[in-house]
Design a protein that fits this description.
The chain contains 8 helices and 9 strands. Helix 2 packs across helix 3, helix 4 runs antiparallel to helix 5 and helix 5 crosses helix 6. It is 40% helix and 17% strand. The protein has one domain. The chain has a 3-stranded antiparallel β-sheet, with no helix packed on it. It has 208 residues and is an alpha+beta fold.
């Protein structure tokens, strides 16, 4: 059974192998199934389908070159046919390899510079480099990892099953999918959503 299209999808269909994310404001995500059968969902940092396609061509080409995406798959057929210039890919690959070797202190700023220079979302750069920048001091103070460190300093152990999810301001736990009110939660890096049979909701409280 096909998944029902959201109102946004009906109004502005997403390009192949992408989908809309509306948690804060509409933005397109990559939606690729890799050879290891994992799904790759990265923000393309745009709501413009043409820009999203350009980012997808580069991402798909790099994944194909690394042997992480099947050359016989639909994504390779859609985005590999037009291709991306080899010289561009070679330069990007060189910069990615350099990023893998820089120190933790330098990585965050260097990744941003590379993303801006190549005209790509920084999330794609992080994924290709296999790294993430260190958290800023402000973010660190709000994270569960600080609580874990404090617990260790006190000789206590916090259960590893205890997770922490950071939601940007403006995020909503409920949204309208057509005429159906739907709940959405992020748990352990995965998004879970389900339809609700309710009459209304306000201030995050559902009534039904």
């Amino acid at each position: 059974m096909a998944k029902p299209k959201t109102e946004l999808e009906q109004r502005s269909p997403s390009p192949p192998y992408t989908r809309w994310d509306q948690r804060v404001k509409p933005v397109l995500l990559s939606y690729l199934k890799l050879i290891d059968r994992k799904w790759l969902c990265l923000s393309l940092q745009t709501d413009d389908p043409d820009i999203a396609k350009r980012h997808m061509r580069t991402l798909v080409a790099m994944l194909l070159a690394k042997g992480r995406l099947s050359p016989d798959g639909g994504a390779a057929e859609v985005y590999g046919a037009k291709g991306t210039r080899r010289s561009r890919l070679k330069k990007l690959d060189t910069q990615i390899r350099r990023l893998k070797a820089v120190s933790e202190e330098e990585y965050g700023s260097e990744a941003l510079v590379t993303a801006k220079r190549r005209g790509l979302p920084v999330g794609i750069i992080h994924h290709l480099a296999g790294r993430k920048p260190e958290l800023s001091a402000g973010t660190y103070r709000t994270r569960r990892m600080r609580a874990r460190k404090d617990a260790r300093d006190r000789g206590q152990v916090m259960p590893m099953g205890d997770t922490w999810e950071h939601r940007r301001q403006g995020g909503k736990y409920f949204f309208w999918n057509g005429k159906v009110l739907t709940a959405r939660l992020q748990i352990g890096g995965r998004t879970w959503q389900w339809p609700l049979k309710v009459r209304a909701y306000s201030a995050g409280t559902v009534t039904g």
